[in-house]
Structure to design on (244 residues):
């Protein structure tokens, strides 16, 4: 009986070694895949100067050194619609919100700077708004959806459990001629996250339309692009179920 027991133990250890090696190999492949997806940054929009908002990013970094944000908070990042949300803390009282909107940025630029102004905070939730400006530059809905997928891959590689909320591209009166591209962008982004419980699509496009099916003028300042407090109130209301 004794040799049989040793033989069984040897077989068990051999099997365990095979399983463990397989698990390590799979983990290595997953890590390699994540690194690859992050490395595959799409080409920038034609004519985009990627570092044009570097001075704003440096100011964020200087502020972080002076008063480092606590990890586990809620980071808002994106274009000027985020940057100009000056009532963000008051709109979400008691929550650790951090505004990292900059310039008139594109998703490509958000991706470029994410390692410096998103990932270091190790947030539990990231709220991102971008896509508006690159559509105005002539980018297609497919281009914007691809850049958003790349943003997700950057976050997932470093912060696999962080939730990401994408705020739909809004219906700006000054860019209403681009509404078909905006609608298609929103559709593609929403469809792409349908099976991922760690992503949310926040629709601000629909409630910003009037009964005539066009953008409500009172939601926008004189440039017909940026929002009034009434516009931000809609965003706050739409985000409330997610920003907690």
């Amino acid at each position: 009986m004794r040799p049989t027991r040793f033989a069984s133990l040897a077989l068990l250890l051999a099997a365990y070694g095979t399983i463990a090696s397989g698990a390590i190999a799979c983990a290595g492949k997953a890590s390699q895949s994540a690194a690859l997806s992050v490395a595959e940054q799409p080409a920038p929009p034609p004519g985009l100067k990627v570092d044009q908002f570097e001075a704003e990013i440096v100011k964020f970094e200087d502020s972080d050194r002076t008063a480092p944000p606590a990890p586990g908070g809620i980071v808002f990042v994106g274009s000027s619609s985020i940057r100009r949300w000056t009532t963000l803390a008051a709109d979400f009282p008691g929550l650790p919100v951090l505004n990292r909107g900059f310039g008139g940025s594109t998703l490509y630029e958000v991706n470029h700077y994410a390692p410096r102004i998103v990932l270091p905070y190790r947030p539990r939730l990231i709220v991102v708004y971008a896509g508006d400006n690159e559509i105005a530059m002539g980018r297609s809905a497919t281009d914007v959806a691809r850049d958003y997928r790349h943003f997700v891959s950057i976050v997932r590689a470093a912060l696999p459990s962080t939730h990401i909320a994408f705020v739909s591209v809004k219906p700006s009166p000054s860019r209403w001629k681009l509404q078909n591209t905006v609608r298609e962008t929103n559709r593609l982004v929403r469809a792409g996250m349908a099976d991922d419980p760690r992503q949310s699509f926040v629709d601000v496009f629909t409630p910003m339309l009037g009964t005539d099916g066009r953008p409500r003028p009172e939601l926008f300042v004189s440039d017909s692009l940026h929002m009034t407090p009434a516009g931000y109130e809609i965003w706050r209301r739409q985000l409330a179920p997610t920003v907690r």
Summary: The radius of gyration is 22 Å.
